[in-house]
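Continuing from the previous page of notes. For each protein in this section, the sequence appears first, followed by its structure tokens. Read the first protein now.
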Amino acid sequence: MGDAVTSQGRELVLVLGPGRSGTSTMAGALARTGFQVPDALDGDDSNPTGFYEPAWAVDFHTRLLERVCVHTLDGDPAAYDELAKVLADPEPGAELTDWLATELAAHPRLVIKDPRLVWFRDLWVTAAQSAGVSPAFVVMLRHPAEVSSSRSEFYDAPQGTAVAGWINVVLLTERLTRGSRRAFVTYADLLTDWRPVLSTMSARLDLHLDPAPDVSTHPIDEFIDPGAASTRTRLVGARRARLAAGSGRSDVRDHHRVGVGWGPGLDPGRSGRTRRGVRPRARRRGRDRARALAAQGSARPTSRRTRG
């Protein structure tokens, strides 16, 4: 038995990747194979099937990022260095350790997903080890053009800023998880045929999936449509055609919704909260700052992130 499964049969999977990369789909699939998402946020228009993000973790990560003005998809290569003082503070680590221990005691098999999580990889590994678990990492990948287009549609983020952030966060994710038990999964592969993807991933990470992917009638079948990839390709092509014709923005909601849906009785949203209810002022500040940086068209000041 590998390190991902340790004392008392506990398992912890941390799903990483920039937002709009298929992280919700992966977490939702794992939630249908015996893993729990504690106090999950409800879905909204940008992700009607649910985010599969623990509300506590989103609050925790957002609060710490705000301290040093680092954003979820920060394009500055020096952003991680700005977090050094936060990571060195023992209080957040103790807070996370207590929360994770409590959740694992209630649900021994957890999947935790939040696009902000990668910035705090070390805190999570330390907290998991304190609980007797070595986490497994699943890194979701999607073409940056698709990610930036989706983020522009739903989060009003400039596409150039989104691509820069994608590059920085993906490289950071690879570096921080190097040497850890990890698996890279593309969103396109997951949509095309989820069974071999999850089979390979679970074998690589030594995870127990229940029900197993080879079960003929599986809850994931109601969640991921195997034909979604071809439909997604048609939608992207139609979008490009509309933009070329000058018709404006396409409906990326159709692009994202295709291939994922609720299974009977599987709604994970127990928190009664959506992302829009989680620190909305911080989200507005980040969006305004991204617009300002894009308008400047230059790098941030030399003395980065001057605090007022």
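Done with the first. The second protein uses the same format. Note its length before scrolling.
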Amino acid sequence: MKTLKTSIFSISAVGILLLGYALFTPQEEPVPVEAGGEAVSATVQKVRVTTVSNTTVEQTEAVNGRVHAKYTTPLYAEVQGTIQPATFDFREGEAFSKAQTLFSINSEEQQFALAAQKKELLSQITRLLADLEADYPETYSDWEDYATRFNAEQPITALPEPRSEKERRFLNSRGIFAQYYQIRAQEQRLAKYTISAPYDGIVTEDVTEIGTLVNPGQYLGTIINNKQYELEAGIDVEWANRLSIGDQVTFSSNDVSGTWNGTISRIGAVIDPQTQHVSVFFDLSGDNLRDGLYLEGALVIDELQQVAKLPRQALQRDKTVLVLREDRVVQQPVQTLGFASDSVIVRGLYNGERVVLNAPEEPIIGKKAEALN
């Protein structure tokens, strides 16, 4: 009897303890479930978004390089002589005009020798006039007139044209043609004692002084045309095939204010094996351009229709973007068409769609989210 009472007491105590545990232990709230049976997180993620607006975007390729004078001319002496004073002071930085004398080399001795040769030719022609009048009367007046107008101080003029082959052989036997062409050659050589500017430009290097004795082949200095410049840029071979002579680019510099229009003048035919680039040459002109100046520009390659320009951070590593649709974050594949320094051009989104800019660390695809902006 005693044992039965003890058992009943023990069962009652255990029941009381279980009831107390059930009453005072916190219970988990039920997880909301959608109609489809999928559990929904109670946390709503705040995200920044940008609204898609499809438009037409110019696809560009960066071009850059250093400016070089299109025409650079090193000057060399072709004759021997002493540098004479001239109206132009050949010094670095000095500007000059086309046809202006840059160097004058003493040629007095050569001038006297040339004048003597001309006088000898005139004497020879004068001695032949009697024979010409007797044997070739039809051309006598031409030669007489030539001798009358002959001026040893002026460049020699062309000889009268023989009327027959017999007359030509006669004149040739007297050495008339040989003397004439020797004089022409000496006149050409005499012209080399004066070096004239082939264009408007500026001196970039000078290495000679007045009174210096120079020899044929000696370097005198360098000049450039400072009105016409050129820039060489390497363009990816894929884009180079789309370029044409005459295409234009606007260049700018980080060091000099202003912009300059560049026009494609030449396109290289060889691909650099290291960079897979083709050399493209741009003609440039304008104020403040200098040889060696570094310029940057953007070459329009194509026009992309119905594309969106998004911040670069919106593009995921797998070439998708996160889009906020009906308060849910979904993953949307896009076609990547190009990059800029801080943006990406994509195709595959609708106007008005909200693209997530700063995806949180934890995955939220398919979960609820709310736009901050």
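What the second structure shows: Residues 108-135 form the longest helix (28 residues). Confidence is low (pLDDT under 50) at residues 1-41. We return to this in next week's lecture.
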